[in-house]
Amino acid sequence: MKKILVSFALLFATFSAHASMIWRAVAVDAAQFAQVQKNPDLLGRMLFSKGDQTISLDKDWHGIHYLLTGTAWDVKDGAGQAILGGEEFGDDLGYGPAHMLTAAQVKAIAAALANTSPDSLAARYDADAMMKLDIYPTVWDREGPRALASLLMSYGELVAFYRRAAARAQIVVIVMV
How far from 59 is each of 15, 21, 63, 104, CA to CA, in Å? Predict the structure, then answer.
């Protein structure tokens, strides 16, 4: 347990120099998830490995969540679970514990994301509302169209990530670092 706390403390220190709250996820099969539960150090290695089983939305996570749900923190069914959904497990990693989405949840999220077009998300973009709700990072009024373009690019990556995980019947583990 000490090893994982030290590993995440180092990762947190690396990112905190930039005062960032970064969203990362990894898709794993049931056996890999069981190994993560037995040996939490594996999660850190998996989250920062290369390949199509990992994704980082960097700081776009909260903006995408807002566009999907219309809220700052509420988790809704379907696509509304993609960013903040799942069951918490393990220790607090600095911004809370990891979250786990089952393969069935991943499949439902992937289907809902596939039915949510970038155009429909763009229509929901409201910089004033996002600023009032304190959607992280609070740049929406300054960045405007550039921020929206970044959100939509990250959204495309999120859709592809969930599509691959659903096709492989994988579990998704989400963390904030």
Answer: 11, 6, 8, 27
- Spatial distance between the Cα atoms of 35 and 39, rounded to a whole number of angstroms: 6
Give the three-state DSSP class for 48: coil
For the 2-176 domain, the top CATH level (class) is: alpha beta
End-to-end CA distance of the chain: 17
Q: Is 132 exposed, middle or buried (0-12, 13-18, 19+ CB in 10 A)?
A: exposed
What is the spatial distance between Cα 132 and Cα 57, in angstroms, rounded to a whole number? Answer: 22
pLDDT digits (tens, 9 = 90+) for 87-103: 999 888 889 999 999 99
Domain boundaries, the chain: 2-176
pLDDT one-digit tens code per residue, 131-149: 999 999 999 999 989 999 9
For the entire predicted model, the pTM comes to 0.88
Eight-class DSSP state of 19: T
For 28, list phi and psi in degrees, rounded to 5.
-135, 160
